[in-house]
Amino acid sequence: MKVDGKPYRTIWLGADSTTVQVIDQTMLPHRFVIRDLRAMEDAERAIRTMIVRGAPLIGAAAAYGMALAMAADPSDAMLARAYSVLLASRPTAVNLRWALDDLRARLSLLPQGDRREAAYRRAAEICDEDAEICRRIGEHGLAEVKRLKPRGERLNALTHCNAGWLATVDWGTALAPIYQAHNSGIPIHVWVDETRPRNQGASLTAWELGKHGVPHTVIADNAGGHLMQRGKVDFCIVGTDRTTRRGDVCNKIGTYLKALAAHDNGVPFYVGLPYPSIDWTIEDGHRDIPIEERSAAELSRLSGRGENGEVLSIDILPEGSPAANPAFDVTPARLVTALITERGACAASEAGLLSLYPEQARAA
Predict the structure, then answer these.
(1) Statement: the pTM of the whole predicted model exceeds 0.85
(2) CATH number of 147-360
């Protein structure tokens, strides 16, 4: 995708073929900053502090974190330590574990002298695979979009959090169909939930849609149901950090409320879903998915650009008031119209997912 006319991915290898470079998403939308990751600890910090965020991008960053570890020390001890440290950086997105399991399994079979090159090669492959997966999600999502009948002169989508190219290596999951619709000339407009408390919608989704020229409007999180009641939303589409084999969808806090409003108003509710985000080991999302509880400071403080252009951080809660900050919720499969994957769209159910991924069927 493009930023001021220049194509970017969210993560790439630097000119020295060792340093990993990423867009610092904590600086957006006010500053466009590129950070260098020179050690495994840098990758862990980038994931934990949300310099990089979004389930697919977290997986890619973890893969490069393993590569950085092998560049420093390709020993078995470092392989085990890097796996443990990176796995603990974020608990909810299953792509993190998927990427780390993939790298550990491959590298553990190799002589130590071959591990550095193999780790960097596999990390690059994971990035390329993610970009292609998201492009194909966009194609299948575009087919779904073309079947919708706009209630006005253009299609109006509503999305929550950020599941665009900033959350992946390129294209995005939920936003990939929107980009492809826009690119193909379909009149489309996006209602962008601000997505408190970190404001990924207002800060990231609006920024990247604007850079690509997609018409959009930022709204307060609580406005979505009202817009659906007024017939101003033709479909909702979100991403996912982890989806169970039965189709329960874990995503940014507030997604469940949008799904309830969509269900009550007959608005289709889609989920863009790359296969590494499917956790085939879990059936019940409410019972089995760990929900990350993040710092209360994300809720109690806001950052923004002042009149002089300086980026400021301010307190907004009464002094001494406690705050709770669960980062995700689980939308039950019954509220999801369809899961849109790189292999096609399916019902949010075990049978639906197995129709696309028959290799995941349990042995009789």
Answers:
(1) yes
(2) 3.40.50.10470
